[in-house]
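Suppose you are handed a protein chain with no further information: no name, no annotation, nothing but its sequence. What can you learn? This example shows the usual starting point.
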Amino acid sequence: METHDYALAGIYRAQGSHAKVEQLYSRALNLAQVYRSSGRYADAESRYAAALAILERVRGPEDPSVTAIRRRLASLSEWLNGGT
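A reasonable first move is to predict its three-dimensional structure. Written in structure tokens, the prediction is:
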């Protein structure tokens, strides 16, 4: 699903459909948060990664929103791998 969303984000961006790109990003982020809240951490990690890929492609790696998602993903990944 992430690859599909990422490809769609590129197509929508090329077409100037920024609202559709934002919808893809929001969907991935919302799913990540729901999965994390319900204890489905591996699924949450996957959706955070999808949201990050979409947002990086659209806004660039230095955007504050990208940084926030990157932190959430790193925190979750660390926790999943037995970190503190």
